[in-house]
Amino acid sequence: MESDEIIEIGINRSNQIYVKPKSHNFSQIYRAAREVNWDRLNSYLHSPSDLKNWNHFKWFRHIIFVIKTEANCNLLITEKTIFINIPEELIVEITKLK
Predict the structure, then answer these.
(1) Cβ–Cβ under 8 Å, residues 28 and 20
(2) 11-39 pLDDT, tens per residue?
């Protein structure tokens, strides 16, 4: 299984949580039909705008799981991962998954 560092995790203007990998491109992930999509302009994976009764943390875990199971790649949080527009309590939850 491959691995890639997560360089950025954030919440964008559309209220989507996003995960930006350092080197991989997951432009075909929509084919898995798991509601995880790739933003070509910003080079990141993201949740839907309508979170559908899931919170940002649950969507973050789902994105990581989908990439692991559908793309055979572990996305890893490192000490260099940047958090953008993420509440402190969500950062704590996310970093516990390391």
Answers:
(1) no
(2) 999 999 999 999 999 999 999 999 999 99
